# Entry
Amino acid sequence: MTDHLPEEVVRLENVSVHYRKPGSRIRTFKEYAIRTLQRRLQFKEFHALQDVNLTIQRGEIFGIIGNNGAGKSTLLKVISRVLVPTQGRVWIKGVVTPLLELGAGFHPELTGRENVFLNGSILGHSLRDIEDHMEEIIRFSGLREFIDSPVRTYSSGMYARLGFATATTWEPDILLLDEVLSVGDEAFRAKCEKRMKGFRNGSTTSILVSHSMESVIALCSRVAWFDKGEIRAIGPAKEVVAQYRKAQPGEKENAVHKNKPA
Amino acid sequence: MLWAREARPQHPTSPFFLKLDLLAHKSLVKTLKVFFADQGFTKAQETFRVSVYGREKLENEMSISKDAIYDSAKRGPVALEELRGVFQYRGLILQLIRKDVVARYKRSVLGVAWTMLHPLGMMIILSLVFSTLYHRQGDYPAYILSGLIAWSFFSQTTNGMISQIVWGGALMRKIYVPHTSFAVASVGTGMVNLALSFVPLFLIVLLVGIPIRWSILFLPVSMLLLAAFALGVGLIISTVSIYFPDVSEMYSLVLIGWMYMTPIIYPETLIPESYRYWFFRLNPMYYYLKIFRAPVYDGMLPEMDILLPAVLISILALTVGWLFFSKKSDDFAYHL
# Structure
């Protein structure tokens, strides 16, 4: 529980995101011209999110679960301003920091240090600010010996460590994690989880997409279960995860087993 | 070897100068390596920025406010938002430029010196080939190079923007950054490269015996005008290429044709006089070529009937490009 009064930091009102189906996307001028002439310029639409209403309070660790293609990543994109929703309203207070997946925003030929500068400025920090935090980033990532080698020589775990360290050193207002904690070794994962739990008492809100129900239950205060772009259930982590597991065909027994000890 | 026989009597000192040239390059490589070493470049940026903005003001502006509110229902015009974003994320633009300039040559021994060696080599090849064709006088290399660096800047930055939008696209699917920052960064990279290629240009100009006059101080203006034009054109091309990837292939063909329509390697008198005027005047690159060539090769400021259209085309291209890009900008993440 947080000490201060609940304060909304994310509010989604009737948010819908419609994609054009990839198959019907027009790729060449010729096709475009032909279709225009035939007046067949309609597209099949794919509803990645449909009428989503959601509020998240300051300090929460909010989990998002659901099967593949349920719209979890699309939701994160809407919150991080990457996608402007087709309909509805997105209201966000504070700085949103998505933890970038492996390699996005890293340039392989640049050194770890140079990449921290690049990545930090992608997150909107000033050069001076990055310099001031460099020491802490190096310490947290545990990459001191490698920080001046090109990151193409890094392993994927090292990539992830540097990425996580850069993203979380600034205590973002809202941290977005899309399946990123699944890489890296146990020790580093524990370190990440510790840091996230540390945020819980502070002012950082974390939004976490994961397929690992264990880490969702362990970390999150509330969870939303997405199914075909809509919210199926929302509430305390254990309850929603239990509902989700029941709905999985063939996993019913598993779910019962796993829930009993918990 | 026709060229060698014809040209040699005119340049008895050439081999000596070539040696000097090599020496100059070696020391230049050294200086540049120091300059672009990790701390050097960062420090230089920092000093520049602090001297321009003042430290406190800089810190206030750069830290994105903790209580910033984003409301998708209350957004201003995208074109203005992009403009503000570019200013807010100027740190990112500097880092992107640095990435492009440094990373490109990271594995090569000569490093950034390639930026200068490339136009130089190109010029040597072209003057070898075409001096036989057009029987030009001794200052032909300077004639080519002064046009060539302007053309390379234009073709490289506009092409670069297309690939930048692809590299940046991977990023733009995951995190919000002003979409125009990648395009602005490619123009920035181009300007760094262009500024570096002035070094071989001045060397060649001196070598062929053209005096360097005060008019070269006009070059920064020429650079800015061409940069604005390139940014405008690049924004349009890269927007279209997001929807139709074939456009980037088409564009590289267009560039080849365009280059031969612009008097870069041939004298203007090559085009028959009856339609020479309109042939050149209808080509926007002609004006930019002239404002680059006049201060260096002719040693005088560009004439008004060249400069004025150049300014107008720059403003027009940049405005149209920026508005067009911004109009489509929200839609990008759905297509990248």
